[in-house]
Amino acid sequence: MNKPARFILSITLAAAAVAILVAQAPPRSAPAFTAAQAQAGQGVYDQNCGGCHGANFQGSGDAPALSGGTFLLQWRNRMVSELFGHILQTMPPNAPGSLSEAAALNVTAYILQRNGAQPGPQALTAAAAMQVGSIATGQAPPANAATAAGGGRAGRGPAPVARGAGASTTRGVSVEGEVKNYVPVTAEMLKNPPASDWLIFGRNYQRHSYSPLNQITKDNVKNLQLKWTWAINDSGANQTTPIVHNGVIYIASPSNIVQALDGKTGDLIWETRVGPDQAPGYGGIRAMAIAEDKIFLPASNAHIVALDARNGKILWDTPQSDKPRANTSGAIVIGDKVLTGLTNCDRFDGEGCYISAYDIHTGKQLWRFYTIPREGQPGSETWNNLPMNNRAGAETWITGSYDPDLNLTYWGVAQSKPWNFLSRHTTPYDKTLYANSTVALNPDTGKLSWYFQHIPGESFDLDEVFERILVDIGDQKVSFNAGKTGLLWKLDRRTGKYLGGKQMVMQNVWESFDFATGTPKYRTDLLEMQVGKPVNVCPSTEGGHNWQAMSYNQPSGLLIAPLSQSCMNFTAREVDFSGSGGGIGADRTFAPMPGSNGNMGKLAAYDVKTMNEVWKYEQRGPFLTAALSTAGGWVLVGDVNRYVHILDVATGKVLWETRLGTSAQGFPVTYNVDGKQYIAVMAGLGGGSPRQAPTALAPEIKFPQNGQALYVFALPQ
């Protein structure tokens, strides 16, 4: 029997055994908690857990399901005291160990109740000596049905929100005002952005995160002063990038609040509450788009919403899907279309994820490109003949870039889900297209021009979804990208041909990597791993490179990359394949990266011609902002420890530092108003593994759990 056949047989037998276990309900033990504990636990859950695990307990992103078959597969035969201990010691991820023993017991009781366990007169204690499966069925009892359907505050988790439903108390313009002398943003302005503006996620279609402004230089940057600060809603993750046009800053805050600010003074011009409210979680709205007289918000509930840029009035609102979806991708306007991606495609619902385009004038959906091929389409065979209902993942949670000359838009696609081949019932040889690929699409039609799959069959949440930076090197048209494996990839953007690679941080996932062909080969022990048995993997799901975008500094020809250095012990778990199961199907514990000297943060510059590392700057805390570079010869980056650093582009020498109220996070920008250059940097919270890894590995780094804000700096008068 060949190797793939053995994998298929073993997985099939394992799945059959799981089905028998799920079908067999063990005898119920006596109640282990009181109704009062479960009720108190709901409040703890809403405050600390719901933003990641969702109102319906089905999880999203890095957060596993806390109810149903998948939860029981992991916890059925483990003790209630072990579940309590796990919550007490490791939750919430951004502040592990911060829950009191009583709070952890209460939320344990609530989770058990949501899984069908019945309350009684005996209070739950830390020494609870019964198995989870002896009291829980995985199904919420009828008395809890209303909570199970809605749970917590409106808009939490990946529950679908109908048009206009689930929004904030006030939906629409909440602060009236008008942008005076508004100048419409033309297609030519998007193609060649004015130096004073920041009109696109990454500033230009090529995603360079570079500005030609040079009033602030590496010689005078030491004189920077704080000019103004604008507090931002603390109700959710903040990883946004401001859009700046004609002296006006447009920002998207958590809970889908859009504001227009005077870029010179920080005064509020108008505010619109699009809704819905959202709880703290790992995904933030990373970018809006602007064109003509409209601002386009990819809302957290996977609606694309157009607002009048002059006054904030909602012009149209289109749901991207009728399935439970979210959107952290951001948006990009190409011609008369606004393009955006999707997240929360980790459940088995048969729909999957897609990139889609909408008419900027009407909101009508014009096309979809499915990132998991439909059955019968090319690439469908790479999923081990799984039915569509058991294929998940392949999200597009970072907005693509665009080449106007080739008329192609380039998007990264995330990993297939569940994360591991064992959990998703594929073999390590199944590619699971188009996961972990670059896809080049015609923006007019959504048709695929070419794809390149970076890591076929990737199995450790080391996705390649991040920014595609388009660079012309002589006559060569190149696309650069880097993912969680920490490898810098170089592709021909006309054809998708692999041109080269450079390992930027240590990795041990691959036994070998052919730098001539771009072909990775997994370690043998990873190909033979087993469910429930941990394996060591570097980098961790924090990623060698994550959403913190690189900057291409055009004058120096350098790519400057924020990188992270951590490893993990990764354990694959079985996943419920019935109904709407799915999820990530794995556990992780973080570990230091060998050779890093405990430095999780690395900022490094690479020559785009040779891909050689020119300089590096390392520190204890990881960087949580994108890199921003300018013609002034400097690059800016911020970190989890609240510092903003400005370094010399040529040498990596630190030129200036300051500290914010909480962690620096998001996408910094620079702009000009009335002849004066400003720098805007976000302080933010929320996030998945890039937050969890430093919390686990560098507990000495402390930061407030509030204080999200926009900080704007400039030189003295």
**Overall average residue pLDDT:** 90
End-to-end Cα distance: 77 Å
What oligomeric state is this?
single chain
Q: Shape from CA axes? A: globular
Provide a count of the helices: 10
Helix content: 10-25%
Extended strand count: 41
The portion of residues forming beta strands comes to 25-35%
Strand order of the largest sheet: 1-7-6-5-4
The assigned structural class equals alpha+beta
Q: Can you summarize the main beta sheet?
A: 5 strands, antiparallel
How would you sum up this structure, described in words?
There is one protein chain. The protein is an alpha+beta fold and 717 residues long. 13% of the residues lie in helices and 29% in strands. A five-stranded antiparallel beta sheet has the order 1-7-6-5-4, with no helix packed on it. The longest helix has 21 residues, at 3-23. 58% of the residues are buried. The model is unreliable at 1-27 and 144-168 (pLDDT under 50).
Element layout with pairings:
Layout: H1 3-23, H2 35-48, H3 50-53, H4 68-75, H5 80-90, H6 101-114, H7 145-149, E1 172-175, H8 187-191, E2 210-211, E3 225-231, E4 243-245, E5 248-253, E6 257-262, E7 268-273, E8 289-291, E9 294-298, E10 303-308, E11 314-319, E12 331-334, E13 337-340, E14 354-359, E15 365-370, E16 392-393, E17 401-403, E18 408-412, E19 416-417, E20 437-441, E21 448-453, E22 469-473, E23 476-482, E24 487-492, E25 498-503, E26 510-514, E27 519-522, H9 524-527, E28 535-537, E29 551-553, E30 558-564, E31 566-572, E32 586-592, E33 601-607, E34 613-619, E35 628-630, E36 634-638, E37 643-648, E38 654-659, E39 669-673, E40 676-683, H10 689-697, E41 709-714
Parallel strand pairs: 2-35
Antiparallel strand pairs: 1-7, 3-41, 4-5, 5-6, 6-7, 8-9, 9-10, 10-11, 12-13, 13-14, 14-15, 16-19, 17-18, 18-20, 20-21, 22-23, 23-24, 24-25, 26-27, 28-31, 29-30, 30-33, 31-32, 33-34, 35-36, 36-37, 37-38, 39-40, 40-41
